[in-house]
From TrEMBL:
Matching Pfam families: HSP70
UniProt cross-references to SUPFAM superfamilies, sorted A to Z: Actin-like ATPase domain
Keyword ATP-binding appears in the UniProt entry: yes
Gene3D superfamilies: 3.30.420.40, Actin, Chain A, domain 4
Record key words, sorted: ATP-binding, Nucleotide-binding
GO MF term set: ATP binding; ATP-dependent protein folding chaperone
The protein, known as: Uncharacterized protein
Family that this chain belongs to: Belongs to the heat shock protein 70 family.
Native organism: Octopus bimaculoides
UniProt KW Secreted keyword: no
Length: 310
């Protein structure tokens, strides 16, 4: 990557020894093109108008470049909305008649974002944002992977260094983590092809052990929640609802920590991986006159900056 004219980033992409240069908005347009093509196939019509969600912390310049990436494909951007707002819409809060305070906890593969929203009559106001850009599902996986590597080393008196075997182990760990969402224990089993005789490594992992390995990381999920409430001098009992977004919010320990913190169950009625996409679809449906509700999301300009927690 380099800077064009000293300020505009440009990516250098080498394909079969052919060097091309792409700006971030051009890279974004390539990704959008794939999504639009999928939508065209599924809807059997050409998509010309779009609603796009972006992280709440995006500034005006980042939003304009996002709009530009869509314009490069000839798309008309009807609305750009914040991801927490989209998630709240998926849960139906855009139709709430009375004032309510919503906390959106978005925990994905590599980042944690928490937003506090003020919602009334379809009007969304972001009161505070905080997050940890180095906390997510991959970090939880790494703790379990490191433990497995330690067990392998002790069992075979040899370090596992082969890249292919280590990748196989990572797949096994990811699968085990997902299974522990619904089970109290699961097995990890793999042939270690880089060891003489290709021995099989087998062990059982319990949910409790997985939680113990990640205890300190799971507790960090509460830090940005604390931060957004302190920013606006709000007590946790004043929060009407807590909605979960992102696949890592499926982890039982994460849900339990949030439940204990607020003394009530978080709202899990919407698939966490789909919440933002569903909310954006609802907004698009309303704008296109294809949704039974007439109340659309209206976002007030964000006056707060995201608090970064490590």
């Amino acid at each position: 990557m380099s800077l064009r004219n000293g300020k505009h980033p440009v990516f250098h992409i080498n394909v079969n020894n052919n060097l091309t240069y792409k700006t971030p908005e051009e890279i974004s347009s390539i990704l959008l093109q794939t999504l639009v093509a999928a939508a065209d196939r599924n809807l059997s019509v050409a998509v010309k108008k779009v609603v796009i969600s972006v992280p709440a912390e995006f500034d005006e310049m980042q939003r304009n470049y996002t709009r530009k990436s869509a314009n490069l494909l000839g798309l008309q951007v009807m609305r750009i909305i914040n991801e927490p707002t989209a998630a709240a819409m998926a849960y139906g809060f855009h139709s709430a008649p009375s004032l309510c305070y919503i906390i959106v906890v978005d925990l994905g593969g590599g980042t944690l974002d928490v937003s506090l929203l003020n919602v009334q009559g379809g009007m969304f106001l972001t009161l505070a944002m905080a997050g940890n850009n180095r906390l997510g599902g991959q970090d939880f996986n790494q703790r379990l992977t490191d433990h497995m590597l330690d067990l392998i080393s002790k069992q075979f008196n040899k370090q596992l260094v082969d890249k292919t075997d280590r990748q196989t182990l990572r797949f096994q760990v990811e699968e085990a983590k997902l299974k522990l969402t619904d089970r109290l224990s699961t097995d990890i089993s793999m042939k270690i092809t880089s060891f003489q005789g290709s021995p099989t490594f087998h062990t059982t992992v319990t949910r409790q052990h997985f939680e113990n390995l990640n205890a300190d990381l799971f507790k960090k999920v509460l830090d940005p929640i604390d931060s957004v409430l302190k920013t606006v001098l709000m007590d946790r009992q004043e929060v009407h609802d807590v909605v979960l977004v992102g696949g890592s919010t499926r982890i039982p320990k994460v849900q339990n920590l949030i439940k204990e913190y607020f003394n009530k169950d978080p709202n899990t009625s919407v698939e966490p991986e789909l919440a933002v996409a569903i909310g954006v679809s609802i907004q698009a449906g309303i704008l296109g006159g294809m949704w039974p509700l007439t109340v659309s999301a209206v976002e007030k300009p964000i006056q707060t900056k995201k608090i970064h927690i490590s």
